[in-house]
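SAMPLE LOG
Freezer: B-3
Tube label: C17
Construct: single chain, 293 aa
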Amino acid sequence: MAALSAACLWAIASVVYGLLGQRIPPLQLNLIKGVIAIALLVLTIVITSESLPNLTFAPTCLLILSGAVGIGLGDTAFLAAINYLGARRVLLIGTLSPPITAIAAMIFLQEQLNFRAWCGILLTILGVAWVVTERVPGTNNHSAMHIWRGIGFGLLAAFTNATGAILSRAAFATTSISPLWAALLRLSAGVLVILICILFSKGRETKVFYPYWQSWRVILTSLFAAFCGTYLGIWLQQTAIKFTAAGIAITLMQTSPLFVIPIAICMGEKVSWRAIAGVIIAIAGIGLLFYLK
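STRUCTURE (predicted):
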């Protein structure tokens, strides 16, 4: 339930981030949502009187690295990809995360994959490719370079998402830290990476934040997106990874495209049968990949 709830919230937040990304650069938007979510997590810890966990060095480093890679780099790439491709396509590329997770687990955690699992990987990739290569109305005016940049950022987001999930699962296996504290630790590490990137970046990312906050619509929209997609989303993500296998958790969390389709329809976007078929194929592949019996 935590994983499916996170997927739904990420679908909603992705659409909102797509609108905000037209006015705020990806690094700054990632920093804004991270800071808001950290404040909400700290407030939740105070209200719930969640005790400070007794962490050893290894799981602490794993969670910090997970946040730096998955949030600092991954979320920034995700937001940049949305600017190029739109939320629906980026979330569909994100369905590659479960196969990537399975392959990485096989290499680094010595988890063996059977024939059914490899069939699931192939089916998932085919489903994603079927939709990503579709021409979506309103994107025909973009250059090939524009589209390929979006696909590149989307793939980077998928790789970092898988890496972050594996690192978090490894940390949970060696410590009793709660999902709330794990979310705070990961998010803090991610925000630190974003700050470093902003300090060393040039151009649009180094501009002051003030112009963006002259609009109350931007402020309220940013608060809503950070509350749903970052504060609740990452908390639920860590809950799912803690209480079930990483592969199953990330599979369920990658069902966001199923939630994006009705959102797109409500926003007046035309959704083709090809897009729906691609989602079904990709999700079927993911389900086959982690069908353990």
